[in-house]
Write a structure and sequence with these properties.
Elements (H helix, E strand, L loop, with lengths): L1 E3 L1 H10 L7 E4 L2 H11 L3 E5 L12 E4 L2 H11 L3 E2 L2 E2 L3 E5 L3 E11 L6 E6 L6 H6 L5 E5 L8 H10 L5 H19 L2 E12 L4 E3 L2 E5 L24 H10 L8 E4 L7 E5 L3 H13 L3 E2 L1 E4 L6 H12 L6 E5 L8 H14 L6 E4 L5 H12 L6 E4 L5 H14 L20 E6 L2 E6 H4 L6 H5 L5 E4 L2 E4 L3 H6 L6 H8 L5 E4 L5 H8 L3
């Protein structure tokens, strides 16, 4: 489920007529002071982070003047939560509250439809307090088309002891909450606490809002950049990966930074959920922590695996690269091997790597990795289904103990580095292929032709070209990278396959050297 930060959730509630405290966000102490002065003291300063119990963790502050606001902002902004810094605070007016309630709409496993929940007090552990008799809690299913009807909402209010005008006010709030829940295709929408001021007004004081992953694309107004529950606001590298993945649906490419600390952070490259979890467990058992989670499964192209490997290597501080997923995957493993070879020689690889590619054509994949990476000054070991994740994690442990990360070094990439003397190029699905025909004319064997399994290339006057009709042939390219590796192996290096990752090079430049 994709989640919204508190300020974004409240903006959404306000669009449906639900009252929220007046507030604005800020990203630095001086902006926080200016915001607080506009709102007028006293104010509440809240860290925007996907965690509960913020007050107990020192992430919510009540400020009566500029000095307190400055001190609070400095204390909160930049503080690390779950391995990621807090970069936004919400500054709100401080309300004069007389009562706190609880209201929510959820998709429940108990019933085939949405469920409205209301309680006569707010706070954590509402369900347990209801069981202990410390609070009154009522639930009611409602129609996913008609929404929560007024009489149904009033019933919830009465069951929880509301009286007089409060019954109508609670019912009005719950009806609007259910409307927002359905309209935004939420999985959970919780207002806790629902504050009642001393003059009888109702405000959503805090809000937890999660949206169905598959619905996020239909709701651009929510500003969800990555439609998955990731536990923190998306990082720049995660955004770059997600933006690419949205344009290429061949297999999966999920990339998530975990903010891992520890002495042995590792770049993790999995394939398949269960196998990846098993492999991460094997890493942890060896004292490693995963710096990231990455999944390339479901028959991804070599080009997609290449981009995933580049993302993993872009992380600072890793001591090793560990690829291991399903024990026997259905996808052809040589596609993953070619993608890794291109990435490892292009970056180039600077930490020991253990690659476990179990499944179809694993022996071919292992052969590719061994052949094309043997000359690197850092070890790469390749294994298949007969070697367990535990064994492979043990091998990585041994290699990491023997080989420290390297400083940048010269490495010959598989692609041609120089400009072509006589260029022949065409677009493929996510990039371009370029041949230097001044090199091709000297090549007798033409390994690129033999390696192209979709048979879109032919030789004309000693030069590789697309078969006619050219547009149709180019469309059939699967971006398997086989022609580039074959040309590299032959020592010709005529071919250059460029697979851009929008925003990636700019990110690396801004971030600086690893």
């Amino acid at each position: 489920m994709a989640r919204l930060l508190e300020y974004k959730a409240k903006e959404t509630l306000a669009r449906f007529g639900i009252s929220v405290p007046r507030g604005e966000i800020a990203g630095d102490p001086e902006s926080a002071i200016a915001t607080a002065e506009r709102i007028r003291f006293p104010v509440v300063l809240k860290a925007q982070a996907f965690i509960t119990g913020r007050a107990e963790k020192g992430l919510i502050h009540f400020c009566k003047d500029a000095d307190e606001a400055r001190a609070a902002a400095r204390q909160v902004l930049g503080r690390t939560i779950g391995g990621f810094p807090v970069d936004t605070v919400l500054i709100e007016e401080k309300l004069d509250i007389s009562q706190e309630l609880f209201a929510a709409c959820i998709v429940s496993d108990e019933i085939p439809g949405p469920l409205a929940v209301f309680a006569d007090r707010g706070g954590t552990g509402i369900e347990q307090m209801a069981q202990d008799g410390k609070t009154k809690l009522a639930r009611r299913p409602f129609d996913p088309v008609a929404g929560l009807l007024p009489y149904e909402a009033r019933t919830l209010a009465v069951k929880c002891g509301m009286e007089g005008k409060q019954i109508g006010a609670v019912a009005d709030f719950l009806v609007k909450l259910a409307k927002a829940f359905l309209a935004e295709e939420a999985r959970g929408l919780e207002v806790n606490p629902l504050a009642v001021t001393k003059d009888g007004r109702f405000f959503a004081l805090d809000c937890h809002f999660s949206v169905d992953d598959y619905a996020a694309g239909r709701h651009p107004e929510l500003g969800i950049e990555i439609a998955r529950e990731i536990g923190h606001p998306p990082t720049e590298l995660e955004k770059i990966a997600a933006a690419y993945e949205a344009t290429d649906h061949r297999g999966t490419f999920y990339f998530l930074e975990l903010g891992a600390g520890g002495e042995k952070p590792v770049g993790f490259h999995g394939a398949g959920g269960g196998g990846s979890m098993m492999s991460m467990d094997a890493l942890v058992a060896r004292g490693f922590t995963a710096k990231n989670f990455c999944d390339t499964s479901g028959n991804p192209s070599a080009a997609k695996v290449y981009r995933a490997a580049k993302h993993i290597l872009a992380q600072k501080g890793i001591v090793g690269y560990f690829a291991s997923g399903s024990g026997v995957a259905s996808q052809e493993q040589f596609h993953s091997a070619r993608g890794m070879v291109k990435a490892f020689r292009e970056w180039p690889l600077y930490v020991p790597a253990v690659i476990r590619l179990g499944g179809n054509k694993e022996e071919v994949a292992i052969g590719i990795l061994n052949e094309f990476l043997a000359d690197l000054p850092i070890p790469v070991e390749a294994y298949g289904k007969d070697n367990s994740a535990e064994f492979c994690a043990g091998r990585l442990d041994a290699l990491v103990n023997e080989h420290a990360p390297l400083e940048p070094y010269e490495c010959t990439p598989t692609a041609r580095s120089e400009d072509a003397g006589e260029e022949y190029a065409f677009d493929i699905r996510t990039g371009t292929i370029s041949f230097d025909h001044t090199i091709c004319i000297r090549c007798e064997d033409k390994p690129c032709i033999e390696s192209c399994h979709v048979e879109i290339l032919e030789v004309v006057d000693g030069k590789p070209r697309l078969r006619e009709p050219a547009d149709e042939s180019a469309h059939r390219c699967t971006e398997c990278l086989a022609c580039e590796l074959a040309c590299f192996k032959a020592g010709m290096r005529s071919i250059s396959i460029k697979l851009p990752i929008p925003g990636f090079e700019e990110y690396i430049t801004r971030r600086g050297a690893r």
